[in-house]
Amino acid sequence: MHGADNNQPVMNCDRFGRTINYLRLSVTDRCNLRCSYCMPEQGVPLCSHDEILRYEDLLRIARAAVRLGIEKVRVTGGEPLVRKGLIGFLASLNAIPNLAEVVLTTNGLLLASLAGQLRQAGVGRVNISLDSLEFDRYAKITRGGDLAEVLAGIKAAEKAGLQLKLNMVVMRDINDSEIEAFAELSLDRSWSIRFIEYMPTIRAKAWRERVVPGAEILERLQKKYRIVPLATGRMCGPSRPFRIEGAQGSIGIITPMSNHFCGSCNRIRVTSAGLAKSCLLSEQTVDLKPYLAQDDDLLCQALRQVIGNKVDYHQMADDSFGPASFSMSGIGG
């Protein structure tokens, strides 16, 4: 619980009346995996080190966002754990008055050695991207990742007292046979298992064939278990939460394709190069770097502009969807 200061945040709403209280903050565009749904096999052009914001600048952005009513910051990448000095940054982030929650998204490969330090820095929860429980399949999806390292990271995170969410991107004929196995991870553990519809961000051929709608995922689970819907929290993301009756943990379904959640969107995002976006799929950005050379009031105005640019909904599922393909790692997922 962070102590309040005299500069109480002002709750900021966009033009559609949505309260914006959640910032996704990328600290790097580099990643130690090449997941097939995230980037092309050859990789993507990376920002130069000079283009990546210093931690001091990222903290200024976070403080300005909190002044506007942001209560939750999710630190992302690329893979955030590959950036040196991250633990100190997270501790400083946690010290910002009126910031209620700092969480981290990771692929888990480096988590085993850092879980305890993350907890000491004030991180209470980590989201781990995990798309298969089969070693060979995991290696194929991630183009070389070692599932054993992720499982060791999960074990270390539990030991450190971190709450866990496991995110599975469901892809038909690739890993959808594991839906039930993932759901069963919530039975005896207090984990949240989240199923995410495949999104065509890299515009792979026949991408529609890969999409498993959330309704289908839920229907499959309901054939095996009694599924109970749960209430969502005010700072939660887009997941629709459920619980298998009697389970310790929960499951969630995220449906950006079949049933977009734009009407309840509560977040903005900032890339590691300082580009602020109101939506993952928006081509509109506000470059915050020039504002970092000015006072904090102007930085707040720039972030207000980002919030003002939020659209009512994305059109990704339409054949006319316009934005070019992009790497999720460059934007923070």
How would you sum up this structure in a few lines?
The protein is of the alpha/beta class and 333 residues long.
* Name of the CATH class: Alpha Beta
Level-2 CATH architecture: Alpha-Beta Barrel
Number of domains: 1
Distance between the termini: 27 Å
Number of helical stretches of at least 4 residues: 9
| Shape call | globular
State the order of secondary-structure elements, H for helix, E for strand.
EHEHEHEHHEHEHEEEEEEHH
Q: What profile does the largest beta sheet have?
A: 12 strands, mixed
- Mean pLDDT metric: 89
pLDDT < 50 stretches: none
Radius of gyration, Cα only, in angstroms? 19 Å
State the total count of DSSP E strands. 12
- The CATH homologous superfamily corresponds to Aldolase class I
Task: Determine the strand fraction and express it as a percent band.
Answer: 15-25%
Fraction of residues in helices? 25-40%
Layout of SSEs?
Layout: E1 22-26, H1 55-67, E2 72-76, H2 86-94, E3 101-106, H3 111-120, E4 125-129, H4 135-142, H5 147-160, E5 163-170, H6 179-184, E6 192-197, H7 214-224, E7 227-229, E8 240-244, E9 250-254, E10 267-270, E11 275-277, E12 286-287, H8 289-292, H9 296-308
Parallel strand pairs: 1-2, 1-10, 2-3, 3-4, 4-5, 5-6, 6-9
Antiparallel strand pairs: 7-8, 8-9, 10-11, 11-12
